[in-house]
Amino acid sequence: MWPSGNGAVTLRLPETTGSCNAAGAICTPGGKPLSETVTATVLGPPALSVADAETAEGPGAALAFAITLSRASSSTVTVQAATSDGSALAGDDCEAKSGTETFAPGETSKVFSVTVLDDDHDEESETMTVTLSNPSGGNAYIADGTATGTITNDDLMPRAWLARFGRTAADHVVDAVEGRLSAERAADVEATLAGQRLFDGAGPGTAEEREAEARLETLAMWMQGEATEDGPNPGPDLSRRASWLQARPSR
Fold this sequence. Notes:
By secondary structure, the protein is mostly beta strands. Helices cover 13% and strands 33% of the residues. A hairpin with a 2-residue loop joins strand 12 and strand 13.
């Protein structure tokens, strides 16, 4: 008997209730009939699989892909694993990696770890792929040889984020906030501070963007307690003023 696939095969021999001369009878060479049903399961070869992985970018982050055998083998099993680019690019978002995973007799799991590279870009989640190939030993075969790694963004923009400035902290945070808002950003991001629109989703180099730079200067003056052309001096005591910075994609 030859199985049609790699799965386990169950054999069942029914008891013989009649004569050994009857069709289908199971008897010993000495003519004794089988008195009880016999069932036996023959296991298929061990199957290799790799599971999807996900992590947030950041220092020390890595995608941990679990590579598993469906059952332990009495022989050493090896399989090759390698990364390939998706929207996540090797060298920019993660490290390229390839290698051989070795399962000693009795082992059923390994971890193929791919280092994630941190960046300061606001971006959507990105993906890459790990593929298994060339299994060897123990009659092992690949059942599920492809997995997706997802890298989620840890940079706050354009998600809503908050900043509160007190009098003593104002001078220290003005430059940081200006730098954050002046940094290159996607054309579909708009932001308001304390009800004042800082930029409205216009792309770099537009008249709206140039006006945004002027509004950033106004923001700095307001935080430092200086008079502005947009209104009366709010005064140097900002300890009871909360400035809420909200950024969201425009629609």
